[in-house]
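Example for reference:
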Amino acid sequence: EVRLVESGGGSVQPGGSLRLSCVASGFTLSNYAVNWVRQAPGKGPEWVSTISSAATGARTTYADSVKGRFTVSRDNAKNTLYLQMNGLKPEDTAVYYCSSLIVRGQGTQVTVSS
């Protein structure tokens, strides 16, 4: 069974940091481009970041709203994707999902509030 399982969400104050993890099972994560997508309450999904497959150089791209604050990375040995989030803002509050071409995780809640 192919799965993605996110973790690492939580509640932080503005300016704080969190690191989200996305563990893959049943397939090799580095063979695929993988995205972080978020969905805030009452809003549609918003693309956050992508890391391309290892074969295409593991290139990273970011939405303008998170550029310079968020960093996506992948540990191929652990078959795990990460999203390091610094300088968090209230507008970053959302459920964060990792997704590949073949499967999406269940999401992890991030809440930024004072």
Summary: The radius of gyration is 13 Å. The mean pLDDT is 97. Strands lie at 3-7, 10-12, 18-25, 34-39, 45-51, 60-62, 70-75, 80-85, 94-99, 108-112. DSSP finds no helices and ten strands in the chain.
